[in-house]
Structure formats: C-alpha cells, structure tokens
Specification:
The protein is an alpha+beta fold. It has 4 helices and 5 strands.
Length: 155
Amino acid sequence: MPRSNPDVKIDQVRAMSEELFTACQRLVPQLTHNNPPPTREQLAQMLASPASFLFQATLPDFGDEIIGMGTLVLYYVPTGLRGYIEDIVVDEKVRGQRIGQALMQACLDTAEKAGAPQVMLTSNPGREAANRMYLRMGFELRKTNVYRYSFTRKK
C-alpha cells in the first residue's frame, strides 16, 4: 500500500473551536449536498460523545487551516464492538496528495487499538477516487443492501 503524505499532520479533535466550525462550513458541502454543515451545538455534541472520534488534517503550507477531516464511530452491539468510518473529506484544493489516506489510517489505527475486529464504511459509487483508495488500503467491497429510512418524508 502506498504511504500517506509525510507532510500531512493528523490530530484528533478534542475541543470545539472556531477553526473547526469554519472548516466544517467549507468542507461538508464538498462532501454532500444532502446534509447541511453542522451547527456549533451539533459539533459540540459530537465531540462530547465517547463514541465519536473526529480527526483533522493540516499541511504546513496552509498553516493552521483544517484541510481535511474524518470521523470514526465505535459502538457496542450484542455481537461485539463495531467501527464505522463516516464523512472523510479533503478540501478540493489539496486532493490527490494522500491526505484522505492519512485520515483513514488514523481512523483504522484508533479502531484497532480499541479492539474493533473490523471497520465498515459506505461510499457512493460515483466517488471513484475515494473507492479506489479504499480498495488500495485493503477494504473489501461487500455485496449487501443498504437501506435508509427517512423521517422527513415528502407529503
């Protein structure tokens, strides 16, 4: 597996900051148009949750600006500890520098250290570069159905 970018710095976010809020306002719309960026209160709730691990990426050339982020969720079910990776996003202006891979590796390392036997994620097939990265990192494409129930149904 190719190594991640040696210049990228990955840190776990442990406290709410204006820089984090600003980064979410910029990065979340680059990830999805289905969900708005989080409010300050939603970010604070996520950071306070013992199940959520938010990681941020920075590069020396961009100072303290957060140029990527990703979330690992660890939770227990009757069959054991589960890990799920969500919302990996790298700013459009720095994509292709293996920053996403570094964020993914931080999530995987944390899950492994916690004792999770595996980590799952979902990805839109149209996100071709992301899907290639997941395969390159050792993820296996599963044949499964993903269902979603929406509480905001059209009337």
